[in-house]
Amino acid sequence: MHNGDVSVELARRVVAALDTALDVRITPAEALIRPSTREGADYQCNVAMSLGKRLGRPPREVATEIVAALDSADLVAQTEIAGPGFINLTLDRDWLQHRATALLDDARVGVAAVEQPRRFAIDYGSPNVAKEMHVGHLRSSIIGDAIARLLRFEGHEVIAHNHLGDWGTPFGMLIEHLIDEGWTSDSEHTISDLNGFYQEARKKFDADPEFADRSRTRVVQLQGGDARTLELWQQLVDESTRHFEKVYQLLGVQLRPEDIYGESFYNPYLNEVVEELEAKGLTELSDGAVCMFPPGFTNRDGDRLPLIVRKRDGGYGYATTDLATARYWAGERGATDLLYVVGTPQAQHFAMVFAASRQAGWLTEEHNAQHVGFGSILGSDGKTIRTRAGGSIKLVELLNEAVDRAASVVAERSELDEQERAAVARAVGIGAIKYADLSGDREKDYTFDWNRMLAMDGNTAVYLQYANTRILSILRKAGEEPAQGTPVLLAEPAERALLLKLLQLPSAISATTESYAPHKLCNYLYETATAFSSFYEKCPVLAESTPPELRRSRLVLAKLTSNVLTLGLSLLGIDAPTRL
Ligand SMILES: NC(=[NH2+])NCCC[C@H](N)C(=O)O
Protein backbone atom coordinates (compact mmCIF):
# COMPACT_ATOMS: atom_id res chain seq x y z
CA MET A 1 0.00 0.00 0.00
CA HIS A 2 1.04 3.58 -0.57
CA ASN A 3 2.29 5.33 2.47
CA GLY A 4 0.51 8.60 3.01
CA ASP A 5 -1.38 10.53 0.39
CA VAL A 6 -0.75 11.93 -3.06
CA SER A 7 1.09 15.02 -1.87
CA VAL A 8 3.49 12.82 0.09
CA GLU A 9 4.11 10.72 -2.99
CA LEU A 10 4.64 13.81 -5.15
CA ALA A 11 7.01 15.30 -2.57
CA ARG A 12 9.04 12.12 -2.65
CA ARG A 13 9.43 12.36 -6.43
CA VAL A 14 10.49 16.02 -6.24
CA VAL A 15 13.04 15.21 -3.54
CA ALA A 16 14.53 12.52 -5.80
CA ALA A 17 14.57 14.83 -8.82
CA LEU A 18 16.43 17.52 -6.89
CA ASP A 19 18.91 15.00 -5.64
CA THR A 20 19.80 13.69 -9.11
CA ALA A 21 19.44 16.83 -11.24
CA LEU A 22 20.67 19.59 -8.95
CA ASP A 23 22.57 17.69 -6.28
CA VAL A 24 20.38 19.35 -3.65
CA ARG A 25 19.01 17.52 -0.61
CA ILE A 26 15.69 18.63 0.91
CA THR A 27 13.04 17.01 3.10
CA PRO A 28 9.67 16.02 1.62
CA ALA A 29 8.00 18.87 3.56
CA GLU A 30 10.38 21.36 1.94
CA ALA A 31 9.14 20.29 -1.49
CA LEU A 32 6.10 22.51 -0.74
CA ILE A 33 3.46 20.46 -2.49
CA ARG A 34 0.04 22.10 -2.18
CA PRO A 35 -3.38 21.40 -3.64
CA SER A 36 -3.71 23.60 -6.71
CA THR A 37 -6.16 26.43 -7.04
CA ARG A 38 -5.74 26.40 -10.84
CA GLU A 39 -8.35 24.99 -13.12
CA GLY A 40 -6.98 21.82 -14.68
CA ALA A 41 -4.10 21.28 -12.25
CA ASP A 42 -4.45 19.11 -9.15
CA TYR A 43 -1.34 20.05 -7.20
CA GLN A 44 1.40 22.59 -7.35
CA CYS A 45 5.03 22.45 -6.25
CA ASN A 46 6.42 25.73 -4.90
CA VAL A 47 9.96 24.66 -4.13
CA ALA A 48 11.64 26.44 -7.06
CA MET A 49 11.10 29.89 -5.54
CA SER A 50 12.89 29.27 -2.26
CA LEU A 51 15.50 27.12 -3.95
CA GLY A 52 16.20 29.75 -6.59
CA LYS A 53 16.97 32.20 -3.80
CA ARG A 54 19.19 29.69 -2.04
CA LEU A 55 21.12 28.79 -5.20
CA GLY A 56 21.14 32.31 -6.60
CA ARG A 57 19.41 31.20 -9.80
CA PRO A 58 16.19 32.20 -11.54
CA PRO A 59 13.37 30.06 -10.07
CA ARG A 60 11.90 29.31 -13.50
CA GLU A 61 15.19 27.78 -14.56
CA VAL A 62 15.28 25.66 -11.41
CA ALA A 63 11.67 24.62 -12.04
CA THR A 64 12.52 23.57 -15.60
CA GLU A 65 15.34 21.35 -14.37
CA ILE A 66 13.14 19.77 -11.70
CA VAL A 67 10.47 18.97 -14.26
CA ALA A 68 13.06 17.49 -16.65
CA ALA A 69 14.40 15.21 -13.92
CA LEU A 70 11.00 14.27 -12.47
CA ASP A 71 10.40 10.54 -12.63
CA SER A 72 6.64 10.52 -12.29
CA ALA A 73 5.15 9.28 -15.55
CA ASP A 74 3.07 6.74 -13.62
CA LEU A 75 1.17 9.31 -11.57
CA VAL A 76 1.57 12.71 -13.22
CA ALA A 77 -0.04 13.21 -16.63
CA GLN A 78 1.00 16.79 -17.18
CA THR A 79 3.35 19.40 -15.78
CA GLU A 80 3.38 23.09 -16.49
CA ILE A 81 5.60 25.88 -15.24
CA ALA A 82 3.67 29.01 -14.37
CA GLY A 83 4.37 32.51 -13.10
CA PRO A 84 7.66 33.01 -11.28
CA GLY A 85 8.31 29.25 -11.09
CA PHE A 86 5.30 27.34 -9.83
CA ILE A 87 5.14 23.79 -11.10
CA ASN A 88 1.55 22.78 -11.79
CA LEU A 89 0.90 19.07 -11.68
CA THR A 90 -2.03 17.24 -13.19
CA LEU A 91 -2.42 13.70 -11.98
CA ASP A 92 -2.86 10.76 -14.25
CA ARG A 93 -6.48 9.75 -14.41
CA ASP A 94 -5.81 6.01 -14.46
CA TRP A 95 -3.56 6.32 -11.46
CA LEU A 96 -6.28 8.22 -9.55
CA GLN A 97 -8.93 5.70 -10.55
CA HIS A 98 -6.82 2.82 -9.31
CA ARG A 99 -6.13 4.56 -6.04
CA ALA A 100 -9.84 5.03 -5.48
CA THR A 101 -10.59 1.39 -6.16
CA ALA A 102 -7.80 0.25 -3.84
CA LEU A 103 -8.99 2.57 -1.07
CA LEU A 104 -12.28 0.75 -0.82
CA ASP A 105 -10.80 -2.26 0.98
CA ASP A 106 -8.65 -0.16 3.26
CA ALA A 107 -10.09 0.18 6.76
CA ARG A 108 -7.64 3.02 7.40
CA VAL A 109 -8.79 4.86 4.25
CA GLY A 110 -5.25 5.45 3.05
CA VAL A 111 -3.69 6.50 6.34
CA ALA A 112 -0.53 4.47 6.95
CA ALA A 113 0.73 3.98 10.49
CA VAL A 114 3.83 5.98 11.40
CA GLU A 115 7.16 4.26 10.84
CA GLN A 116 8.61 5.38 14.14
CA PRO A 117 6.00 5.28 16.88
CA ARG A 118 6.68 7.45 19.90
CA ARG A 119 5.44 7.21 23.45
CA PHE A 120 3.13 10.06 24.41
CA ALA A 121 2.13 10.89 27.96
CA ILE A 122 -0.87 13.22 27.76
CA ASP A 123 -2.14 15.14 30.74
CA TYR A 124 -5.79 15.99 30.20
CA GLY A 125 -9.08 16.28 32.04
CA SER A 126 -7.44 17.18 35.34
CA PRO A 127 -10.33 18.54 37.43
CA ASN A 128 -10.11 19.23 41.15
CA VAL A 129 -11.49 17.04 43.94
CA ALA A 130 -14.46 18.40 45.87
CA LYS A 131 -15.24 20.93 43.15
CA GLU A 132 -17.46 20.72 40.13
CA MET A 133 -15.69 20.49 36.80
CA HIS A 134 -15.78 23.80 35.00
CA VAL A 135 -15.69 24.57 31.30
CA GLY A 136 -11.87 24.64 31.31
CA HIS A 137 -11.93 20.99 32.37
CA LEU A 138 -14.53 20.33 29.69
CA ARG A 139 -12.24 21.76 27.01
CA SER A 140 -9.24 19.86 28.34
CA SER A 141 -11.21 16.59 28.28
CA ILE A 142 -12.54 17.10 24.76
CA ILE A 143 -9.31 18.35 23.17
CA GLY A 144 -7.08 15.89 25.02
CA ASP A 145 -9.32 12.99 24.10
CA ALA A 146 -9.31 13.90 20.39
CA ILE A 147 -5.52 14.25 20.36
CA ALA A 148 -5.11 10.93 22.17
CA ARG A 149 -7.40 9.16 19.67
CA LEU A 150 -5.58 10.69 16.69
CA LEU A 151 -2.12 9.80 17.96
CA ARG A 152 -3.19 6.24 18.76
CA PHE A 153 -4.64 5.90 15.29
CA GLU A 154 -1.33 7.04 13.84
CA GLY A 155 0.26 4.13 15.67
CA HIS A 156 1.84 5.92 18.61
CA GLU A 157 1.68 4.67 22.13
CA VAL A 158 -0.45 7.00 24.21
CA ILE A 159 -0.72 7.05 27.98
CA ALA A 160 -3.44 9.33 29.27
CA HIS A 161 -2.94 10.70 32.74
CA ASN A 162 -5.55 12.69 34.54
CA HIS A 163 -3.81 15.17 36.87
CA LEU A 164 -6.54 15.26 39.46
CA GLY A 165 -6.20 18.13 41.96
CA ASP A 166 -6.39 15.89 45.02
CA TRP A 167 -3.73 17.26 47.35
CA GLY A 168 -2.70 20.38 49.19
CA THR A 169 -3.87 22.72 51.93
CA PRO A 170 -7.62 22.90 51.08
CA PHE A 171 -7.94 19.26 52.06
CA GLY A 172 -7.48 20.14 55.73
CA MET A 173 -10.68 22.20 55.75
CA LEU A 174 -12.52 19.77 53.48
CA ILE A 175 -11.83 16.83 55.73
CA GLU A 176 -12.76 18.78 58.88
CA HIS A 177 -16.01 19.81 57.22
CA LEU A 178 -16.62 16.18 56.33
CA ILE A 179 -16.19 15.21 59.97
CA ASP A 180 -18.55 18.00 61.08
CA GLU A 181 -21.10 16.65 58.63
CA GLY A 182 -21.00 13.36 60.50
CA TRP A 183 -18.91 11.35 58.06
CA THR A 184 -16.84 8.52 59.39
CA SER A 185 -14.42 6.48 57.39
CA ASP A 186 -16.89 3.61 56.91
CA SER A 187 -20.19 5.44 56.41
CA GLU A 188 -21.96 5.71 53.09
CA HIS A 189 -22.58 9.28 52.05
CA THR A 190 -22.90 11.30 48.94
CA ILE A 191 -22.28 14.94 48.26
CA SER A 192 -25.02 16.18 46.00
CA ASP A 193 -23.38 19.49 45.32
CA LEU A 194 -19.61 19.54 45.21
CA ASN A 195 -19.31 23.30 44.81
CA GLY A 196 -21.68 23.87 47.72
CA PHE A 197 -19.61 21.56 49.89
CA TYR A 198 -16.41 23.39 49.05
CA GLN A 199 -17.95 26.80 49.64
CA GLU A 200 -19.37 25.80 53.05
CA ALA A 201 -15.95 24.57 54.15
CA ARG A 202 -14.35 27.77 52.91
CA LYS A 203 -16.90 29.93 54.74
CA LYS A 204 -16.30 28.16 58.04
CA PHE A 205 -12.57 28.37 57.53
CA ASP A 206 -12.75 32.15 57.10
CA ALA A 207 -15.24 32.77 59.92
CA ASP A 208 -14.25 30.31 62.62
CA PRO A 209 -10.67 30.40 64.00
CA GLU A 210 -11.17 27.14 65.86
CA PHE A 211 -12.18 25.40 62.60
CA ALA A 212 -9.24 26.99 60.79
CA ASP A 213 -6.88 25.65 63.45
CA ARG A 214 -8.32 22.16 63.19
CA SER A 215 -7.98 22.37 59.41
CA ARG A 216 -4.31 23.27 59.62
CA THR A 217 -3.62 20.40 62.00
CA ARG A 218 -5.52 18.13 59.63
CA VAL A 219 -3.27 19.09 56.71
CA VAL A 220 -0.24 18.10 58.75
CA GLN A 221 -1.90 14.76 59.58
CA LEU A 222 -2.73 14.20 55.93
CA GLN A 223 0.80 14.90 54.83
CA GLY A 224 2.14 12.78 57.67
CA GLY A 225 0.14 9.82 56.39
CA ASP A 226 -2.28 9.49 59.34
CA ALA A 227 -4.46 6.47 58.52
CA ARG A 228 -7.88 7.86 59.57
CA THR A 229 -7.22 11.13 57.79
CA LEU A 230 -6.23 9.28 54.64
CA GLU A 231 -9.44 7.24 54.74
CA LEU A 232 -11.55 10.37 54.92
CA TRP A 233 -9.49 11.94 52.17
CA GLN A 234 -10.01 8.83 50.05
CA GLN A 235 -13.76 9.17 50.50
CA LEU A 236 -13.63 12.69 49.16
CA VAL A 237 -11.54 11.56 46.21
CA ASP A 238 -13.84 8.61 45.45
CA GLU A 239 -16.93 10.75 45.72
CA SER A 240 -15.55 13.29 43.28
CA THR A 241 -14.17 10.66 40.94
CA ARG A 242 -17.62 9.09 40.65
CA HIS A 243 -18.98 12.46 39.63
CA PHE A 244 -16.22 13.00 37.04
CA GLU A 245 -16.76 9.49 35.66
CA LYS A 246 -20.36 10.42 34.94
CA VAL A 247 -19.27 13.45 32.93
CA TYR A 248 -16.66 11.46 30.99
CA GLN A 249 -19.22 8.81 30.18
CA LEU A 250 -21.79 11.29 28.99
CA LEU A 251 -19.11 12.97 26.92
CA GLY A 252 -17.72 9.73 25.52
CA VAL A 253 -14.26 10.69 26.70
CA GLN A 254 -11.96 7.70 27.08
CA LEU A 255 -10.54 8.63 30.50
CA ARG A 256 -10.77 5.69 32.88
CA PRO A 257 -10.36 5.57 36.66
CA GLU A 258 -6.96 3.90 36.20
CA ASP A 259 -5.77 6.92 34.22
CA ILE A 260 -5.88 9.06 37.33
CA TYR A 261 -2.44 10.20 38.36
CA GLY A 262 -3.49 12.92 40.74
CA GLU A 263 -1.25 15.39 42.50
CA SER A 264 -1.09 12.99 45.47
CA PHE A 265 0.53 10.39 43.26
CA TYR A 266 3.64 12.54 42.96
CA ASN A 267 3.81 13.29 46.68
CA PRO A 268 6.38 10.56 47.42
CA TYR A 269 8.68 11.99 44.73
CA LEU A 270 8.73 15.61 45.83
CA ASN A 271 11.57 15.28 48.34
CA GLU A 272 13.78 13.57 45.77
CA VAL A 273 12.92 16.20 43.17
CA VAL A 274 14.08 19.02 45.40
CA GLU A 275 17.12 17.15 46.67
CA GLU A 276 18.21 16.36 43.16
CA LEU A 277 17.81 19.96 42.04
CA GLU A 278 19.77 21.13 45.07
CA ALA A 279 22.52 18.55 44.48
CA LYS A 280 22.83 19.71 40.88
CA GLY A 281 23.31 23.26 42.11
CA LEU A 282 20.23 24.52 40.29
CA THR A 283 18.45 26.11 43.26
CA GLU A 284 18.79 29.33 45.21
CA LEU A 285 17.29 30.46 48.49
CA SER A 286 15.04 33.41 48.01
CA ASP A 287 12.98 34.84 50.88
CA GLY A 288 13.43 31.53 52.67
CA ALA A 289 11.99 29.56 49.76
CA VAL A 290 13.97 27.15 47.60
CA CYS A 291 13.66 28.46 44.05
CA MET A 292 14.89 27.84 40.56
CA PHE A 293 15.40 30.66 38.12
CA PRO A 294 15.25 29.05 34.70
CA PRO A 295 16.99 31.32 32.17
CA GLY A 296 14.92 33.60 29.99
CA PHE A 297 12.06 34.31 32.38
CA THR A 298 11.82 37.82 33.72
CA ASN A 299 9.07 40.21 34.70
CA ARG A 300 8.54 43.64 33.13
CA ASP A 301 11.24 45.20 35.29
CA GLY A 302 13.74 42.62 34.15
CA ASP A 303 13.78 40.72 37.45
CA ARG A 304 14.24 37.00 37.14
CA LEU A 305 11.09 34.97 37.80
CA PRO A 306 11.27 32.24 40.43
CA LEU A 307 9.90 28.73 40.15
CA ILE A 308 9.22 27.89 43.78
CA VAL A 309 10.27 24.32 44.48
CA ARG A 310 9.95 24.42 48.28
CA LYS A 311 7.97 27.04 50.13
CA ARG A 312 9.31 28.83 53.15
CA ASP A 313 7.20 26.65 55.44
CA GLY A 314 8.74 23.53 53.92
CA GLY A 315 5.64 22.66 51.84
CA TYR A 316 5.49 21.93 48.16
CA GLY A 317 3.29 23.61 45.60
CA TYR A 318 1.89 23.21 42.11
CA ALA A 319 5.27 23.80 40.42
CA THR A 320 7.12 21.11 42.36
CA THR A 321 4.42 18.60 41.46
CA ASP A 322 4.71 19.45 37.79
CA LEU A 323 8.50 19.11 37.93
CA ALA A 324 7.80 15.67 39.33
CA THR A 325 5.47 14.85 36.43
CA ALA A 326 8.16 15.63 33.85
CA ARG A 327 10.75 13.62 35.78
CA TYR A 328 8.34 10.70 36.24
CA TRP A 329 6.90 10.44 32.72
CA ALA A 330 10.16 11.00 30.87
CA GLY A 331 12.37 9.16 33.36
CA GLU A 332 10.39 6.31 34.86
CA ARG A 333 7.85 5.75 32.11
CA GLY A 334 10.07 6.43 29.12
CA ALA A 335 7.71 8.88 27.44
CA THR A 336 9.27 10.70 24.48
CA ASP A 337 6.48 13.25 24.21
CA LEU A 338 4.88 15.02 27.15
CA LEU A 339 1.69 16.91 26.39
CA TYR A 340 -0.22 19.00 28.92
CA VAL A 341 -3.68 19.98 27.74
CA VAL A 342 -4.36 22.93 30.02
CA GLY A 343 -5.77 26.45 29.55
CA THR A 344 -3.50 29.15 28.10
CA PRO A 345 -3.31 31.13 31.38
CA GLN A 346 -0.88 28.45 32.56
CA ALA A 347 1.47 28.92 29.59
CA GLN A 348 4.24 30.53 31.59
CA HIS A 349 4.03 27.94 34.34
CA PHE A 350 4.61 25.14 31.84
CA ALA A 351 7.31 26.99 29.93
CA MET A 352 9.20 27.41 33.22
CA VAL A 353 8.63 23.80 34.29
CA PHE A 354 9.95 22.55 30.94
CA ALA A 355 12.99 24.85 31.04
CA ALA A 356 13.78 23.76 34.60
CA SER A 357 13.34 20.09 33.70
CA ARG A 358 15.77 20.53 30.82
CA GLN A 359 18.28 22.16 33.18
CA ALA A 360 17.86 19.19 35.50
CA GLY A 361 18.48 16.82 32.60
CA TRP A 362 15.09 15.12 33.01
CA LEU A 363 14.12 16.32 29.58
CA THR A 364 16.72 16.00 26.85
CA GLU A 365 16.89 16.74 23.14
CA GLU A 366 15.02 13.49 22.57
CA HIS A 367 12.00 14.80 24.42
CA ASN A 368 9.20 16.92 23.10
CA ALA A 369 7.38 18.69 25.93
CA GLN A 370 4.39 20.79 24.92
CA HIS A 371 1.80 22.83 26.66
CA VAL A 372 -1.28 22.30 24.50
CA GLY A 373 -3.10 25.44 25.60
CA PHE A 374 -6.67 26.51 24.95
CA GLY A 375 -8.78 29.63 25.40
CA SER A 376 -12.00 30.00 27.34
CA ILE A 377 -15.61 29.52 26.40
CA LEU A 378 -17.48 32.80 26.47
CA GLY A 379 -21.14 33.47 27.10
CA SER A 380 -23.19 35.81 24.92
CA ASP A 381 -22.00 38.67 27.16
CA GLY A 382 -18.42 38.05 26.05
CA LYS A 383 -17.35 36.87 29.50
CA THR A 384 -16.27 33.39 30.57
CA ILE A 385 -19.44 31.35 30.68
CA ARG A 386 -21.23 31.23 34.06
CA THR A 387 -24.59 30.34 35.43
CA ARG A 388 -26.91 33.10 36.57
CA ALA A 389 -25.93 32.50 40.18
CA GLY A 390 -22.40 33.44 39.25
CA GLY A 391 -20.84 30.04 39.80
CA SER A 392 -19.41 27.94 37.01
CA ILE A 393 -21.99 26.24 34.87
CA LYS A 394 -22.70 22.68 35.93
CA LEU A 395 -21.35 20.50 33.22
CA VAL A 396 -23.81 17.67 33.61
CA GLU A 397 -26.67 20.13 33.17
CA LEU A 398 -25.03 21.64 30.11
CA LEU A 399 -24.54 18.24 28.50
CA ASN A 400 -28.08 17.15 29.27
CA GLU A 401 -29.40 20.35 27.76
CA ALA A 402 -27.36 19.66 24.60
CA VAL A 403 -28.99 16.25 24.26
CA ASP A 404 -32.47 17.72 24.88
CA ARG A 405 -31.99 20.42 22.29
CA ALA A 406 -30.60 17.91 19.81
CA ALA A 407 -33.66 15.73 20.41
CA SER A 408 -35.93 18.50 19.23
CA VAL A 409 -33.73 19.22 16.20
CA VAL A 410 -33.82 15.54 15.31
CA ALA A 411 -37.55 15.15 15.99
CA GLU A 412 -38.35 17.71 13.30
CA ARG A 413 -36.82 15.62 10.58
CA SER A 414 -36.75 12.11 11.64
CA GLU A 415 -38.67 8.95 10.90
CA LEU A 416 -36.90 7.11 13.68
CA ASP A 417 -38.65 5.38 16.54
CA GLU A 418 -38.32 6.72 20.05
CA GLN A 419 -35.42 4.57 21.12
CA GLU A 420 -33.29 5.26 18.05
CA ARG A 421 -34.10 8.89 18.45
CA ALA A 422 -32.66 8.98 21.96
CA ALA A 423 -29.38 7.48 20.77
CA VAL A 424 -29.23 9.89 17.86
CA ALA A 425 -30.04 12.86 20.11
CA ARG A 426 -27.11 11.92 22.27
CA ALA A 427 -24.75 11.61 19.29
CA VAL A 428 -25.94 14.93 17.88
CA GLY A 429 -26.07 16.85 21.17
CA ILE A 430 -22.73 15.70 22.55
CA GLY A 431 -21.26 15.89 19.07
CA ALA A 432 -22.39 19.53 18.82
CA ILE A 433 -20.65 20.48 22.07
CA LYS A 434 -17.47 18.66 21.15
CA TYR A 435 -17.31 19.86 17.57
CA ALA A 436 -17.92 23.49 18.58
CA ASP A 437 -14.93 23.13 20.85
CA LEU A 438 -12.68 21.33 18.38
CA SER A 439 -13.47 23.21 15.19
CA GLY A 440 -11.89 26.52 16.18
CA ASP A 441 -8.25 27.29 16.76
CA ARG A 442 -7.88 25.92 20.28
CA GLU A 443 -5.85 28.84 21.60
CA LYS A 444 -8.67 31.27 20.90
CA ASP A 445 -11.71 31.91 23.04
CA TYR A 446 -15.03 31.04 21.48
CA THR A 447 -18.60 31.97 22.17
CA PHE A 448 -20.98 29.29 23.30
CA ASP A 449 -24.00 29.44 21.02
CA TRP A 450 -26.62 26.69 20.94
CA ASN A 451 -28.09 27.76 17.61
CA ARG A 452 -24.78 27.84 15.86
CA MET A 453 -23.52 24.54 17.18
CA LEU A 454 -26.75 22.77 16.25
CA ALA A 455 -27.15 24.36 12.81
CA MET A 456 -27.88 21.92 10.01
CA ASP A 457 -25.63 23.77 7.65
CA GLY A 458 -22.25 25.22 8.27
CA ASN A 459 -19.20 23.68 9.85
CA THR A 460 -21.00 21.72 12.56
CA ALA A 461 -21.09 18.13 13.77
CA VAL A 462 -24.71 17.67 12.79
CA TYR A 463 -24.00 18.86 9.24
CA LEU A 464 -21.32 16.17 8.91
CA GLN A 465 -23.46 13.56 10.65
CA TYR A 466 -26.36 14.39 8.38
CA ALA A 467 -24.18 14.32 5.24
CA ASN A 468 -23.03 10.87 6.26
CA THR A 469 -26.53 9.49 6.88
CA ARG A 470 -27.63 10.89 3.53
CA ILE A 471 -24.85 8.93 1.83
CA LEU A 472 -25.76 5.79 3.75
CA SER A 473 -29.34 6.17 2.66
CA ILE A 474 -28.25 6.46 -0.99
CA LEU A 475 -26.31 3.22 -0.55
CA ARG A 476 -29.34 1.57 1.02
CA LYS A 477 -31.57 2.71 -1.81
CA ALA A 478 -29.06 1.44 -4.35
CA GLY A 479 -29.58 -2.00 -2.87
CA GLU A 480 -25.92 -2.88 -3.26
CA GLU A 481 -22.75 -2.19 -1.33
CA PRO A 482 -19.92 -1.36 -3.72
CA ALA A 483 -17.93 -4.56 -4.19
CA GLN A 484 -14.17 -4.65 -3.73
CA GLY A 485 -12.37 -4.03 -6.98
CA THR A 486 -15.19 -1.98 -8.52
CA PRO A 487 -13.59 0.27 -11.16
CA VAL A 488 -13.85 3.98 -10.44
CA LEU A 489 -14.39 6.23 -13.43
CA LEU A 490 -13.70 9.93 -13.27
CA ALA A 491 -15.92 11.53 -15.89
CA GLU A 492 -16.94 14.86 -14.31
CA PRO A 493 -14.71 17.49 -12.64
CA ALA A 494 -16.84 17.15 -9.47
CA GLU A 495 -15.94 13.47 -9.25
CA ARG A 496 -12.29 14.26 -9.58
CA ALA A 497 -12.50 17.06 -7.02
CA LEU A 498 -14.24 14.76 -4.54
CA LEU A 499 -11.71 11.98 -5.01
CA LEU A 500 -8.78 14.37 -4.60
CA LYS A 501 -10.30 15.52 -1.30
CA LEU A 502 -10.78 11.93 -0.14
CA LEU A 503 -7.15 11.17 -0.91
CA GLN A 504 -6.06 14.04 1.33
CA LEU A 505 -7.16 12.40 4.58
CA PRO A 506 -3.61 11.29 5.51
CA SER A 507 -2.17 14.78 5.24
CA ALA A 508 -5.17 16.27 7.06
CA ILE A 509 -4.46 13.91 9.94
CA SER A 510 -0.72 14.53 10.03
CA ALA A 511 -1.23 18.30 9.87
CA THR A 512 -3.61 17.92 12.81
CA THR A 513 -1.28 15.92 15.02
CA GLU A 514 1.81 17.94 14.11
CA SER A 515 0.38 21.00 15.78
CA TYR A 516 -2.17 19.30 18.05
CA ALA A 517 -4.80 21.26 16.19
CA PRO A 518 -8.07 19.29 15.83
CA HIS A 519 -9.66 22.17 13.90
CA LYS A 520 -7.56 21.18 10.90
CA LEU A 521 -9.25 17.80 10.73
CA CYS A 522 -12.64 19.49 11.25
CA ASN A 523 -12.00 21.82 8.32
CA TYR A 524 -10.95 18.91 6.17
CA LEU A 525 -14.10 16.94 7.01
CA TYR A 526 -16.26 19.95 6.28
CA GLU A 527 -14.56 20.44 2.91
CA THR A 528 -15.06 16.76 2.17
CA ALA A 529 -18.77 16.97 2.96
CA THR A 530 -19.19 20.04 0.76
CA ALA A 531 -17.22 18.36 -2.06
CA PHE A 532 -19.64 15.47 -1.79
CA SER A 533 -22.59 17.78 -1.93
CA SER A 534 -21.34 19.42 -5.18
CA PHE A 535 -20.60 15.99 -6.59
CA TYR A 536 -24.07 14.77 -5.73
CA GLU A 537 -25.66 17.80 -7.33
CA LYS A 538 -23.79 17.36 -10.61
CA CYS A 539 -23.39 13.61 -10.83
CA PRO A 540 -26.64 11.70 -10.50
CA VAL A 541 -26.03 8.37 -8.83
CA LEU A 542 -29.32 6.49 -8.82
CA ALA A 543 -31.01 8.17 -11.78
CA GLU A 544 -32.27 5.90 -14.58
CA SER A 545 -30.13 7.81 -17.07
CA THR A 546 -26.89 6.98 -15.26
CA PRO A 547 -25.12 4.08 -17.02
CA PRO A 548 -24.56 1.05 -14.72
CA GLU A 549 -20.74 1.30 -14.62
CA LEU A 550 -20.94 4.99 -13.73
CA ARG A 551 -23.57 4.27 -11.10
CA ARG A 552 -21.29 1.65 -9.53
CA SER A 553 -18.33 3.99 -9.68
CA ARG A 554 -20.29 6.80 -8.04
CA LEU A 555 -21.46 4.45 -5.31
CA VAL A 556 -17.78 3.74 -4.57
CA LEU A 557 -17.13 7.47 -4.23
CA ALA A 558 -20.16 7.79 -1.97
CA LYS A 559 -19.04 4.89 0.18
CA LEU A 560 -15.49 6.28 0.43
CA THR A 561 -16.90 9.64 1.53
CA SER A 562 -18.91 7.95 4.25
CA ASN A 563 -15.82 6.03 5.35
CA VAL A 564 -13.79 9.24 5.59
CA LEU A 565 -16.51 11.10 7.51
CA THR A 566 -17.15 8.24 9.92
CA LEU A 567 -13.47 7.67 10.60
CA GLY A 568 -12.75 11.40 10.91
CA LEU A 569 -15.60 11.97 13.35
CA SER A 570 -14.59 8.96 15.43
CA LEU A 571 -11.05 10.33 15.69
CA LEU A 572 -12.57 13.50 17.11
CA GLY A 573 -14.52 11.39 19.59
CA ILE A 574 -17.84 12.03 17.85
CA ASP A 575 -20.38 9.35 16.94
CA ALA A 576 -21.71 9.08 13.41
CA PRO A 577 -25.23 7.61 13.53
CA THR A 578 -26.29 5.55 10.53
CA ARG A 579 -29.72 7.23 10.37
CA LEU A 580 -30.92 10.63 11.42
N1 LIG B 1 -0.08 18.94 35.26
C1 LIG B 1 -0.99 19.87 35.36
N2 LIG B 1 -0.71 20.97 35.99
N3 LIG B 1 -2.18 19.64 34.82
C2 LIG B 1 -3.28 20.55 34.85
C3 LIG B 1 -3.96 20.61 36.16
C4 LIG B 1 -5.12 21.56 36.14
C5 LIG B 1 -5.59 21.98 37.50
N4 LIG B 1 -6.16 20.89 38.26
C6 LIG B 1 -6.64 23.07 37.31
O1 LIG B 1 -7.81 22.84 37.51
O2 LIG B 1 -6.29 24.19 36.94
TrEMBL record:
Record keywords, A-Z: Aminoacyl-tRNA synthetase, ATP-binding, Cytoplasm, Ligase, Nucleotide-binding, Protein biosynthesis
GO molecular function, one term: arginine-tRNA ligase activity
Keyword Ribosomal protein: no
Gene Ontology CC terms, in alphabetical order: cytoplasm
GO term, biological process aspect, one: arginyl-tRNA aminoacylation
Catalysed reaction equations from the record: tRNA(Arg) + L-arginine + ATP = L-arginyl-tRNA(Arg) + AMP + diphosphate
The EC number(s) this enzyme carries: 6.1.1.19
Cited Pfam families: Arg_tRNA_synt_N (PF03485), DALR_1 (PF05746), tRNA-synt_1d (PF00750)
Similarity comment: Belongs to the class-I aminoacyl-tRNA synthetase family.
Protein name: Arginine--tRNA ligase
Upper classification of the organism: Bacteria, Bacillati, Actinomycetota, Actinomycetes, Pseudonocardiales
